[in-house]
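Suppose a colleague, Dr. K., hands you the sequence of a protein chain of 139 amino acids and asks what its three-dimensional shape might be. Before reaching for any lab equipment, you can write down a predicted structure in token form. Begin with the sequence itself:
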Amino acid sequence: MRPFPSILARFPGSLGLSRHPHGLPPLSPDQTHNIRLLYLEMALQGIVAAGATAYLSVFAVRLGASAFLVGLLNSLPALLLVLSAVPAGRYVAGQTNLKRVVVRSCVAFRASYLVIALVPWLFPTWAGAAIVLIWSLAA
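The predicted structure, expressed as tokens, is then:
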């Protein structure tokens, strides 16, 4: 007997994606493929974001950010995420093309990495504050 029974064993098909557990019609092969791609995208984005977050405060300090700005860099994104969750949920619920919403948000978040990398040349005197602002808005 396995110590942890597999959740996927409860659902027929690959990764439990071919049939919904509540009796809804089965997903098409395109839908299953898209779901797998979305899961892969989310996993890779999580890895990239975790890696960037680990070094972002060091980057900000090297550019002259104060301890206060580093504190804001670590706390402000979470605060803004809490405050924007309900309005963002309402916005997404009102959209008819969810693919466009997902793609735009992914592109915007990835563009924030590029802007942060260019901060030393774009805002040399305000680099620390610019990084805090960009990272907070991207979250």
